[in-house]
Amino acid sequence: MKNNVKNDELIDEIPQVTTAATTNPAAAVVQPLTPTQVDDDDDAVDLIGDYEALKSKPGLPCILPKEQGKTVRFALVKGVKAFVKQTHFLAGVNSKGCTVICPGGDCPECKKGGDHASRRKVVALAIKYETNGDGKFTASTIKPSLSVGFINLSPTAYTELSDCPSEGEDLYSVDFKVTKKTNGIGWTFNRMSSPPSYLKVQMEAEVAELAAPYLDGKALKSRLGKVVSPIEMKVMLFGSAADTSPTLDDLNVWD
Ligand SMILES: [Zn+2]
């Protein structure tokens, strides 16, 4: 271990070297050349102490099928809030495109109008059943495999989903099946069973456990799109020449 402490400090430090290194790893790090440069440590973290907060967590996946003709069976979880926002899909951004939440007011896309107008998007937590890609359980299934994810719904898809329950049923008392349309654009929603299969086989506890990490709505809400300011949106659309962005200036701090 490196020892760059002064002699008078060394006397006190020696018995605690191991502890100090564990609880305060930053103490042994090389001092910055000009300490005044590093005056903003709001985002400082302790790589050991903040382990729980920093470690990667499994993301909340979209459960809608990606392949044409594939079907997914799912149920919505009662008691979990859904979220809605006006959004834009920026096709050319990040090669794959990027969905942003409309910043309102000075939104550069809303100003263009027409096809660029914002679109309402709803996201809801969903429990997906493992099936053979057709939404049906195999004959030997006693308890289906469950996983948690989300669905996102355009206004059309939301209407279609809402029309699925029969008289006396609601969105939470049925299993749905969703199939990617053969033209590859959008999904078809249908009612599959009532009550939902997880209730029929008494898997409420499993569903509650799967949903528990998402009850605060943070992960679900983040699936609506990226939160951007009108200026950040302009930079995404037109590149850095469009405006000066504070985030670009920040990079120079490290030069
Ligand atoms: Zn907008």
The quaternary structure here is single chain
Q: Cα-atom Rg, whole angstroms?
A: 25 Å
Question: Main sheet?
Answer: 8 strands, mixed
Could you tell me the number of beta strands?
8
Uncertain stretches of 5 or more adjacent residues: 1-29, 242-255
Mean pLDDT: 82
Distance between the amino and carboxyl termini: 29 Å
Structural class, by secondary structure, is alpha+beta
Molecular structure report:
The chain has 255 residues and is of the alpha+beta class. It has two domains: 7-54, no CATH class; 71-235, no CATH class. It has ten helices and eight strands. Strands 1, 2, 3, 4, 5, 6, 7 and 8 form an eight-stranded mixed β-sheet that branches. 19% of the residues are buried. The structure holds zinc ion. Residues 88, 102, 107, 109-110, 118 line the site of zinc ion. Zinc ion (ZN) binds next to α4.
Gist of the model:
This protein is of the alpha+beta class and 255 residues long.
SSE layout and pairings?
Blueprint: H1 7-13, H2 17-23, H3 51-54, E1 71-76, E2 83-90, E3 98-101, H4 108-112, E4 119-129, E5 146-153, H5 155-162, E6 175-180, E7 187-193, H6 197-200, H7 204-211, H8 218-222, E8 226-227, H9 230-238, H10 246-251
Parallel strand pairs: 3-8
Antiparallel strand pairs: 1-4, 1-6, 2-3, 2-4, 4-5, 6-7
The structure holds zinc ion (ZN).
Zinc ion binds next to helix 4.
